[in-house]
Amino acid sequence: MVTLSKKTEYALIALTYLTAEPKNTHSARALAQRSKMPPALLMNVLKQLSGAGLVESVRGAAGGYRLGRPADEITLTEVIAAVDGPVHLTACAGTAGEEREHARQGCRLGGGCPVHGALEGIHERLVAFLSSITLEQIAADELAKSAGRN
């Protein structure tokens, strides 16, 4: 089963709130209260998103977090990679060079895997699909609600 981790879900929720009010900064504490997320975990996720350039950390009395780039330029693949590392359908699909050889050595079938080629193709299509989804699309419902409040 392919599922998003809880950290990715938290990242998407926080990013959705930031997308709804892109000019404002939001404290981690306020985002945690609004979304009912554990503050410590959310702060860790925000730090990872900041490290990837998806959010900006603003210091000072009116500090907090805001989007690092426009929501229509942030992809789901980037969010996943920021908090969980690169998307991998299987341990060896989507890896390159030494990393792929190391992953394949851990596989009982090694170089004789009858599904490796197919899974590699599926992996490439999955990454292309996830890369086509933007934060703006994910946040569309919240953006519509926010526009109704203004």
How far apart are the termini?
40 Å
Helix vs. strand class:
mainly alpha
Total number of strands: 2
Strand order in space, largest sheet: 1-2
**Secondary-structure element pattern, one letter each:** HHHEEHHHHH
Average pLDDT figure: 86
Percent of residues in beta strands: 5-15%
Number of helices: 8
Tell me the helix content.
Answer: 55-70%
Cα shape = elongated
Q: Report the C-alpha radius of gyration, rounded.
A: 18 Å
Query: Biggest sheet: strands, sense, closure?
Result: 2 strands, antiparallel
Question: pLDDT under 50 segments (min length 5)?
Answer: none
Walkthrough of the structure:
The chain contains eight helices and two strands; from the N terminus they run αααββααααα. It is mostly helical. Strands 1-2 form a two-stranded antiparallel sheet.
Defining traits:
single chain; 150 residues; mainly alpha; two-stranded antiparallel sheet; 8 helices; 5% strand; elongated
Quick recap of the structure?
The chain is mainly α and 150 residues long.
How is this fold's topology laid out?
Elements lengths: L5 H15 L7 H8 L3 H13 L3 E4 L5 E4 L8 H9 L12 H9 L10 H16 L3 H4 L1 H10 L1
Antiparallel strand pairs: 1-2
Helix pairs in contact: 1-3, 1-4, 1-8, 2-3
